[in-house]
Design goal:
- With 154 residues, this protein is an alpha+beta fold.
- Helices cover 27% and strands 38% of the residues.
- A hairpin with a 4-residue loop joins strand 2 and strand 3.
- Helix 1 crosses helix 2.
- The protein is elongated, with a radius of gyration of 22 Å.
Amino acid sequence: MVQMRVTGLTQKPDGHEATLMLQDVTGDLGLAFVIPMNEANRLARVLILELAGHGGLSVSRTVLDGDDQGICAAVVVERDGAPIELSCHPADALALALRTDSPIYAAAGAMGHACRLGDAHTHEPPAPAAPEDTDVARWLQDVRPEDFGSAATP
């Protein structure tokens, strides 16, 4: 797993959603999430106040994972030193991590959705791949009309 840190949180002008940016500790890879503000805040309050406060639980970390369908999340809480993993929506898990100042980790499945961020020191975006370096560009260079068979004439 890769430890992540929050590098930005911007609220959209309508106030209904925010974009949360995460970056790995080396600054090379990033993940972005659109968070519905009302849902994330509601769940974070419920989990913090109800579960943690009354249930004797403490939030130890948030874990992001994923597959080809997208990213999922779990909040790991502890009771008497025993970890309990609670599956939840990534936005809710991230909101809870921010409110409790707990670490965020991304497993390999989530990192499969990460993008290169470019040079972390200059904050420049990564250079786009040259068109001639893509599979499509190479295919277009070699394709011939005969590759499509004979065209029917009307």
